[in-house]
């Protein structure tokens, strides 16, 4: 038997009886299925629904909060960078307004100025004055750029037009990235000159790298052509083109979703830095941003899974328990119905038999008397007294009448509920008494009889005569079922708390299922030819019931039959008639 | 000494056969085919025993037995019936029937019963006679 078979409830194991007088009240497996289904639906659907809603709401709120935070970081960084640049631009503007052209063209003074700017702002690498022709007239700094002609460079013309210029980042002679800021100053005489400075991008980079971005977040600058201007942590190298599309110009900080080169979803926050060629880019991995969400989601799913398992388990256990109990109650009801029907059937057959027997007894008595009279006539008349043939014939009529009389008396006995007379009996003694009647036959037919009475069987109150009749009937049947050399085993063992069971097993011819169903019916006999009345077992059945016991029979055709009689150790209370 | 008996049964066939068999066994047999007839015959003459059937039309055996015993408590009645319930049996015994036999009855068993009945009757008669003599002796002052 597998484990599934073992835990399988009874109602799933049995065949459903849906028709006939003994049909079950319900289809239990269907009830069970419906109970499981409906209870699961009404409990699980709201749970799943609420969890799904919560899932979505939480996901959306975490997502939008992440976006908002990134946006805030982006605009703050934009402001910082913008103010960094405008500070330097303002410093240069102040210088050109404060100092005269002559002072600025004095290399010694320009050097002092550069020192001052370095001290107060930091990041200034060199300082140079360029005349309106684009030639650098004065230069202080680490390179020898004195006299360099910038007139052919784009920025030079831009400064002439716009009044200032902030350049892209580029590698200078020292292979260090830096940028250039230049301002134009117009003198009262209409001529103009340009003050130009190179700034290293260290401060810049510091600004961007110290941004709190979390995970694989990245903040850097690109120019308007998409060339990376500051070192990045996870993107391409500086001066390479970024792999993202360059956003449309907008004064505000923009945020959008994109995919990186690996195809992972990312959040791209971009912001045009005003008055400069730079675009601030903040790239964040969506998965990193949603890290906390993933944890929450895991908890949520785990909670859901555990809840669903517990609910289903409880529903399963409870429905199974209830339906099984219903099923068992119904089974008991059916069993009682069966029993009632059977005893009703026996009772009505009994009444019929008694009626018939009663009616037959009178004519039988007449036959008896007439035949007796004939016999008398013959016996008392000398002429015929010697005619043994006629006397023999009459004797056989009389003996047949007697046999009929025995049958009718038995029939009446079967129907009649005789009083039970109780006395204290020892079951072993009763069985042995019965066996003494049959000893001769057993010997003659070489049948071995084994009696095994458990030692702990107490004496108990029972009707000795009825008990004897019961055993006699069954043992007699067993004897006639067995061939020469058969084996009969009688065992008695207690059936706690207050019953004993007597088992009578023979290795005789056995019975088929069909025969088994009829053995207690009156006049059902397999040995009608050898003189059986077919009343023995029906009387036995009635007797066992009168004693408050139960009789059960199992048999296999060709292998033998076992009768088990369960008897109460305490006589039953008189049932209401 | 031959026994004088009365057979009461509604089955005439049974009555005739039975009475002949009884006669063959040296008994004086009177028959009655109904309870009414039986009662009449009992009041007309005295019997050693009455064999009475239980199941009869008009008046059944128990009723008849009751009347018989009221009229003549010393009368010995043997009930002979096709089938009697326990209740009927007990009732009959309470009313003073000698015995209850089931049909078809063995003729020898029946005759034995009749002999018992006669013996009992004799005993009762003797006792009565004795008492009567004692009474007479007492009144006469012997």
Average of pLDDT of chain B: 87
User: Helical segment tally of chain B?
Assistant: 5
Query: Any idea of the CATH topology of the domain at 417-568 in chain A?
Result: Heat Shock Protein 90
* Topology, number of strands of chain A: 17
CATH architecture field of chain B: 3-Layer(aba) Sandwich
Helix content of chain A: 40-55%
Oligomer description: heterodimer
Decide which structural class fits the backbone of chain B.
alpha/beta
Helix content of chain B: 40-55%
Straight-line distance between termini of chain B = 34 Å
The CATH homologous superfamily of the domain at 417-568 in chain A: Histidine kinase-like ATPase, C-terminal domain
Q: What fraction strand of chain B?
A: 15-25%
Query: Rounded to an integer, what's the Rg of chain A over CA atoms?
Result: 58 Å
Account of the protein in words:
Chain A: Keywords: ATP-binding, Kinase, Membrane, Nucleotide-binding, Phosphoprotein, Transferase, Transmembrane, Transmembrane helix, Two-component regulatory system. Chain A: This is histidine kinase. The complex is a heterodimer of chains A (577) and B (142). Chain A is built from 15 helices and 17 strands. The radius of gyration of chain A is 58 Å and the shape is rod-shaped. In chain A, strands 1, 2, 3, 4, 5 and 6 form a six-stranded antiparallel β-sheet that branches. Among the domains of chain A are: 82-198, Beta-Lactamase; 205-290, PAS domain (Beta-Lactamase, 2-Layer Sandwich); 417-568, Histidine kinase-like ATPase, C-terminal domain (Heat Shock Protein 90), CATH 3.30.565.10. Helix content of chain A is 51%, strand content 19%. Chain A is of the alpha+beta class and 577 residues long. In chain A, a hairpin with a 4-residue loop joins strand 1 and strand 2 (136-140). By secondary structure, chain B is of the alpha/beta class. Chain B has one domain (4-140): Rossmann fold (3-Layer(aba) Sandwich), CATH 3.40.50. Chain B has helices at residues 12-24, 35-44, 61-71, 86-94, 107-140; strands at residues 4-8, 28-32, 49-53, 77-81, 99-102. Chain B has a five-stranded parallel β-sheet, sandwiched between helices. The model of chain B has no long low-confidence stretch (mean pLDDT 87).
């Amino acid at each position: 038997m597998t484990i599934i078979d073992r835990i399988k409830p009874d109602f799933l194991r049995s065949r459903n009886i849906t028709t006939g007088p003994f049909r079950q009240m319900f289809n239990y497996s269907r009830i069970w299925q419906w109970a499981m289904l409906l209870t699961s639906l009404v409990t699980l659907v709201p749970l799943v629904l609420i969890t799904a809603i919560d899932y979505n709401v939480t996901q959306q709120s975490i997502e939008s909060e992440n976006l908002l935070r990134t946006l805030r970081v982006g605009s703050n960084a934009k402001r910082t960078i913008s103010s960094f640049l405008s500070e330097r631009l303002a410093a240069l503007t102040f210088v050109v307004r404060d100092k005269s052209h002559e002072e600025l063209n004095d290399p010694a003074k320009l050097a002092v100025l550069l020192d001052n700017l370095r001290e107060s702002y930091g990041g200034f690498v060199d300082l140079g004055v360029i005349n309106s022709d684009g030639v650098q007239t004065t230069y202080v700094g680490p390179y020898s750029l004195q006299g360099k002609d910038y007139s052919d460079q784009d920025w030079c013309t831009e400064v002439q037009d716009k009044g200032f210029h902030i350049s892209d980042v580029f590698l200078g002679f020292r292979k260090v990235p830096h940028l250039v800021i230049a301002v134009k100053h117009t003198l009262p005489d209409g001529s103009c000159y340009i003050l130009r400075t190179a700034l290293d991008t260290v401060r810049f980079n510091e600004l961007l790298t110290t941004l709190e971005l979390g995970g694989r977040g990245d903040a850097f600058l690109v120019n308007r052509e998409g060339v990376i201007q500051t070192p990045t942590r996870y993107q391409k190298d500086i001066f390479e083109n970024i792999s993202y599309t360059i956003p449309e110009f907008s004064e505000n900080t923009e945020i959008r979703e994109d995919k990186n080169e690996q195809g992972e979803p990312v959040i791209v926050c971009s912001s045009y830095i005003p008055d400069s060629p730079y675009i601030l880019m903040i790239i964040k991995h969506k998965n990193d941003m949603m890290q906390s969400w993933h944890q929450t989601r895991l908890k949520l799913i785990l909670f859901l899974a555990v809840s669903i398992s517990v609910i289903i388990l409880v529903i399963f256990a409870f429905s199974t328990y209830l339906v099984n109990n219903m099923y068992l109650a119904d089974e008991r009801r059916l069993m009682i119905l069966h029993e009632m029907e059977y005893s009703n059937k026996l009772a009505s057959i009994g009444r019929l038999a008694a009626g018939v027997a009663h009616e037959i007894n009178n004519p039988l008595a007449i036959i008896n008397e007439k035949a007796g009279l004939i016999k008398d006539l013959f016996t008392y008349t000398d002429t015929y007294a010697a005619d043994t043939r006629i006397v023999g014939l009459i004797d056989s009529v009389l003996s047949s009448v007697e046999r009929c009389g025995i049958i009718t008396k038995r029939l009446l006995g079967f129907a009649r509920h005789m009083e039970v007379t109780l006395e204290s009996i020892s079951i072993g003694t009763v069985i042995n008494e019965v066996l003494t009647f049959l000893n001769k036959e057993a010997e003659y037919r070489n049948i071995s009889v084994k009696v095994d009475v458990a030692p702990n069987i107490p004496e108990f109150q029972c009707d000795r005569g009825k008990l004897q009749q019961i055993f006699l009937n069954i043992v007699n049947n067993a004897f006639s079922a067995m061939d020469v050399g058969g084996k009969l085993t009688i065992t008695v063992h207690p059936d706690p708390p207050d019953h004993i069971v007597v088992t009578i097993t023979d290795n005789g011819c056995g019975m088929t299922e069909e025969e088994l169903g009829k053995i207690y019916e009156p006049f059902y006999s397999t040995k009608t030819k050898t003189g059986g009345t077919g009343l023995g077992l029906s009387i036995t059945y009635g007797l066992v019931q009168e004693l408050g016991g139960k009789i059960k029979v199992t048999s296999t055709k060709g292998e033998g039959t076992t009768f088990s009689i369960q008897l109460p150790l305490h006589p039953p209370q008189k049932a209401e008639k | 000494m031959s026994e004088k008996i009365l057979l009461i049964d509604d089955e005439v066939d049974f009555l005739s056969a039975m009475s002949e068999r009884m006669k063959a066994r040296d008994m004086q047999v009177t028959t009655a085919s109904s309870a009414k007839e039986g009662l009449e015959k009992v009041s007309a003459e005295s019997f050693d025993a009455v064999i009475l059937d239980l199941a009869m039309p008009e008046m059944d055996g128990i009723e008849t037995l009751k009347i018989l015993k009221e009229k003549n408590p010393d009368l010995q009645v043997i009930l002979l019936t096709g089938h009697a319930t326990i209740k009927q049996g007990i009732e009959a015994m309470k009313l003073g029937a000698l015995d209850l036999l089931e049909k078809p009855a063995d003729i020898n068993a029946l005759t034995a019963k009749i002999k018992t009945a006669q013996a009992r009757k004799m005993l009762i008669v003797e006792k009565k006679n004795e008492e009567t003599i004692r009474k007479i002796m007492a009144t006469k002052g012997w």
